[in-house]
Amino acid sequence: MEAYINGIGIVSPQKTFDTSDFLSEIVEHNSKLLNAIEPSYKEFLDPNLARRMARVIKMSIAASFVCLRDAKIEKPDAIITGTALGCLQDTEKFLLSIIENDEQFLTPTSFIQSTHNTVSAQIALQLKCMNYNFTYVHKGFSFESALLDSMMTLEEGEAKNILVGGHDEMTEKHHRVYNRIGYWKKDSAVDTMQLIHSKTPGSVGGEGAAFFILGNEKTEKSYAKLQGVEMIYKPENTKEVETKIITFLDSKGLQANDIDVVLYGINGDVRFDQLYYEIKNTLFKNSTSGYFKHLCGEYQTSGSFAMWLAAKILQTQTIPNAVLIGENKSKEIKNVLIYNTFIDSDQSVYLLSKC
User: Fold this and answer.
1) Which CATH number fits domain 3-215: 3.40.50.300, 3.40.47.10, 2.60.120.600, 3.40.30.10?
2) Which of 315, 355, 287, 328 has its CA nearest to residue 339?
3) SS3 for 201?
4) Best label site of 189, 206, 236, 246, fewest CB within 10 Å?
5) Consecutive sets of 10 residues in the chain, 355 residues long: mean pLDDT of each?
6) What is the pTM of this model?
């Protein structure tokens, strides 16, 4: 299975909304939570409608519309999304209203918009798209599951162009709950550009919405070719991870030395980052290394940000200095591998190649 990335649209804690720009200006955060830089929604939504929408819905609609415009497509053959938390803001609003109103006189809006498939449904409503529409809610494998469904749908010939995305928001209440169970740094503020040098437990929270047009044909706009996605659930040790990555690459006719750039999901958590370094120093010791969670923060669908980053690297043949770990060893970038984990249990591998 393979697919071409023919369009992109992304809202993130960086200035990524302009598809022609590629991290020319890095936004440095000094916080435990990286909020997305939201665009003006007037171009994409009626103000009266936007006022009743949660942030993640507005971010996703804007990102998906930019993605479609980038690919020069008016209506996709399918809409497939992945999210771990869904519309968290509306979920919290509805639950709080139950308590505050003693379970009486509840307005249904927050409940209607709190379901996980609200984003894909709202995009379809805006586009008047009645085609296949599906949302995957698989924690750290949510976006990866959406990608696999998209690639299988393309391979079976049921669609030619699919809008696929990953989206999650971070609210103050959710951040506070995760903080209690040790997900985030204990410091009051964290310099995210120094996150890779951290030697303490915890990371920094993040959020974002990234959408892609996956097609079965290469176009003049194609950014990269997505060759495959592999999911590894709760590996016993580093050896098992290495074996599965080698098997995955072998199925694509590649070896570890064929990978020019590897993007790691290093997030500054000393409990889990060691696995990345073990893979980096053994299996991919000859490849250029990069990381991305200091730019977008940690969240379950952060792999969508990494895929945007990899696609732009292949298209522009450049690696921003803020992404690099060590020196750039690649003269020409043909293959980029993404290795990402969420709390070391949900591990995923993406392979993207130059068109």
Assistant:
1) 3.40.47.10
2) 287
3) coil
4) 236
5) 96 96 95 94 88 91 97 97 90 80 77 85 96 96 98 96 97 90 88 93 96 96 97 94 97 97 97 95 96 97 98 97 94 96 92 96
6) 0.95
